[in-house]
Request: fold
Amino acid sequence: MAPQSPAGEAAANEPGPFLPGRGAVAVGAVLLVSLLGLTFDALLRDRGDFDYGLSRAVGEIAFRGDESFFRFFSTLTASFWAITLWSSLLIAMLAMRRWLAATALLAFPVVGGVNTLIRLLVRRPRPDWSELHFRWMTPEEIAYSAAHNDYVSYPSGHVVGAVLLYGFLYILARHLRFAPVRVAVRAACVAVIVLSGISRVWLGGHWVGDVLGGYALGGLALLVVALMYRALEPSTRRVPLIRAAPVPHDDARPHAHALTSTILFRGDEVSKIYNPGFVPQIIYWLSFQAPFAYAHNPTALRAAVARRNLAGRLTEYWFGRNCVAQALRAEQINGRWAITGRFTEGEEPRDHHRARQFLFELADRFDETGFPTWQIDPRQPRSLGNLLEQADGSYTIIDLESGLVSPLASPRAWVRAIRRAMVPMYDDVYFDLTREYVAREAAAMGKARGTQWVSDLEHLLDEAEALAAEWHGAEPRIWSRTLRFVFDGFGVLGAVRWLRRKTSMGRDRADAWLGACVTTWRADGRITEAQEAELRETIAAPEIQGVLPHLGVHLIIGVALRFPLGSITRASYTTGNLLLACLRFATRRIDRATWRRAIRIHSPLVIFVAAMPGIGTFAYLISGPVRSNHLLARVVFDSAGEKVPFRLYRRLGLRRLVAGREAAAA
Reply:
């Protein structure tokens, strides 16, 4: 028997949530905004508004041995001792096979490179000692400082290094079992981080803004490292560097080992239990900022089941038989997630040339329908290992789930992925291409396999797409989201689409509201059947239809926002439409008639009423197109008047004046 791993330990090794908590997002946002603001200020000025006063205040700190005290912390966080401690810690982590901690330490020089790049771009001079003139500064030191200013004051490298190195030591201290030692180590780390910044200002090496920039950059980098460590540390503890970690199984029973899994043969079923080593896990986290999906996310496994069966269905149409081993379910075996499929009899392909020809044809068909081709690409050395030859000479694919996130793909595959903002690539199906193919071939499929077969295929396609979307939505996927944000015009195009959706919703809502107003008057007997028909024709006219979307937007704003935000938003919306119409007319994008219609709709009177609380929601009811139809104006003013608080509309007799008396029922 192989070493057993109890189910309780497997459960304890489950990682934290895939998405970072609100607190981490909030802290990251504050640090990022602070870093950008301080960097922009450093680009514009040699020192900030409060730098001189705060630096002078820090320089006034005095106690016995103050200079030695602050020089100690400055030296401790300087290059020599920082690199020495970093190197020692890295060697210790590698010796103890703490792969995750070692990887985190290897990221620190990257942050140092970012810090150096910012310094070279900003080129802020160090403080002028003749301005500060702290009590410990001698004339010779002041003159030397002025002559040797290196113009790399922002941000403070000492502080960035201290936050990263001692902040990570603070995180590692959680593994110290003896509480007094753990508390002492963490207190020392906090002291070094705080005093490194104070010492750099006290010694005249940096302005306060430089130190704050160092805290922001170092804190942001440490936050990323902490999130990675929190997500991966439970699942990477004591795992091999590359190969899959062992899972409970009987060595006497048939089994096999893959890069990220152990494969157990159980009668007519075969189960692939995922327990990847460190390298596959860290590559996946760097790609998608989440734990290895097939080992920790059951939705990803269910998506893999649907994807494999969908591919098998398509091969039935292409080759007349299912050429993909059937996937049955995603399940937990001894506390670890696995994908279980139907056992397939077969042997290694005898004619490798013929097998490669089959894989080339299958890869072309997969590529046409938007399926990933990595596992079956004949140029991939392990692709033949995923292929079994049957007794009749046919072939069956037994594995379509990748063990690594790999950049090795054709230029066409990369172009497709980038266009869809799905980078890096990992077992992704481009469902838009799949749906286009199914729609194009539906008639031929129905003729060859039957209409019920096509219906089942479409149902499986819907299921696979929904599961893939749920899987991807549960992971941060920063690179894909960033690319999507860029393609979206940095949010501008998304805002335009959102506004169009809201405008369409507003049109429907306003149309329904006006229809209800007319229905109420007809039910009350205030208008005849002929007048009702006339009103409905008026509402359907293009001039009134031009008002309805904006009235609908005001109705939505009135529900979503309260005073004063609602009033401000409504007035801003109407003013923006008026200015946009004037700008388009000035640039000759619209003619005079269209511009005059826009002026009648978004008039200054409408803007004034829109800014009022309550009744501002119905400001577009006094626009020119509505006012020009007296009967329609009476109907809408009556319905709007009912919204006035304290029933003032009725108490003041305005309803009788606007709506008239109710007619007797016929």
Observations:
- Residues 1-14 have pLDDT under 50 and may be disordered.
